[in-house]
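Q: I'm writing up a methods section and want to include an example of the input and output format. Could you take the sequence below and give the corresponding predicted structure tokens, formatted cleanly so I can copy it straight into the document?
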Amino acid sequence: MKKVTPAKVWMALGTSLLVPLTVPISAFAATSFDSQYQANVTQEAALLQTAQSGTVTTAAGQSFSNQVQNLNSEISSLYSTEQTLAQNSQSLSTSISNQTSQLQQLQTQRKQLLQESQVAWNQYSRYIRGNGRNFRGMAQSYHNQWLKIGEKVLNVNGQLAGLNPSNQEGNSEYQQGLSSLQNSILSLQSAEIADTQQWINLEQNAGSGSIGSTISSTGLTAPTLVATTDSNGNPEIAVSNAQPGATVVLYSSNGTQVSSTVADDNGNATFDNVATGTYYGVQSLNGQQSGASGTVTITSISSVTSLSAPTIAETTDSNGNPEIVVSNAQPGATVVLYSSNGTQVSSTVADDNGNATFDNVATGTYYGVQNLNGQQSGASGTVTINGTSSLLITNANAQFDGLLQTNITATVNLAVTRVQIIDETNGNTLSTATPSGGSLNVQIIGANSGDTLTLIPYEGNTVEQPVNVTVTENLPSTVLTAPTLVATTDSNGNPEIVVSNAQPGANLVLYSSMGTVVNLTSADDNGNGVFDNVANGTYDVVQIVNGQQSSASNSVTVA
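A: Here is the clean output for your methods example:
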């Protein structure tokens, strides 16, 4: 029998609006940042006092003095911003914690309502098949009960929709941004300390008449840096004359730390895949830091021969859908497909033979480029997709769950913007769905096993060739057996009904001899359940698992 119900209620009962919960992200633990920040401030103040106490001034020293002042100004500005953001972070975390509590309460309420709705609908289905006034009256009563529960679900859904869980994701991004800002501040402080130390070294060396000396006040000599290339022609910086086991830190010319490594037993180290720019290095060992090395400059990203453009061609797959095949790419390269106006359409990775495929491609003109190890090729030649397959929807499948929902899946051409789903039995539109990434996956209410559904694809406002699919029923692999009931009493002598032989986690529904739902509970991990404080009368129980309902249990009487 066709299940015809008000659309709004079906929508409420058929949509999973249980919002995923995540643990609220607590505010960044500022204590570790603040302690490191204050330690750096103390260290820089001591170094600055030494630097400013010198009586000899060099042009290079003045340059470092100006750079230290600029860095200090930037650090102060960023630290003020960080303090404001850290305070706001705590307020945001508190707000999200309160929202999470409300979400949990509403989800629990909605779960209970859906269980009650399932019981009411099962009872309606049970009595609507019977004959006689009493059966029709009971069926109407349960139908009205089911509609009222549906309205309650709609109300809870509205409250859930008003509590936006994306705030938690926003809080996570907020914390990541705050952490990134704090790391930037600490990095700038390290650059400021390094520049001040080099300022001191330059002034001390100038005062002693040994401008070329690279010996710092700590006794560690500055390492030697040389710009070179590896076996593939990629730029690298080779380090020598460091202490074995020393930490060698590479800085850009503006004092930003770029990378660090440890010198080997011969005092050598290497920084590879270095971007264009000017760099210097310092070494640290046992709490001591050397002066800065001389600078080296990387003038090109790589001397490797430029990547050639890939080759692309238009073809169709086994279903007649248009696709673009790629060849002559580098194995492992990322191949990016662009429309003729320069808009990126899709990307994929070339296989071991340098081939790749873009399928379900819409009408238009395209070109491709490949990217590998930071390099990008020129553009390929263009190909034009002049038309789409006569069938824009393929591999359609529809399965009824035996209770409420029908799940529809299909492969959909990328040109399709929406799919209208019509029940051929009565011409009703059951849903209009939006495909994603060439796939359709939608759950609808109102179809039964054996129904024929028509899927109508649209390209914008243009109707394309529809396809039909027959609904099949996804029957459970096993048949639920009826549970077993025993009437007994609890430790206080109160009557109770004990249920056994149910499926673990099954919904257990207690009925009176008149067919009225009295109570419901869930079976435990052993398939047992208990209904306590039961009034005098005769009862039976059914169990429900994944929309499948067992037959009634044996009847027991509480007297």
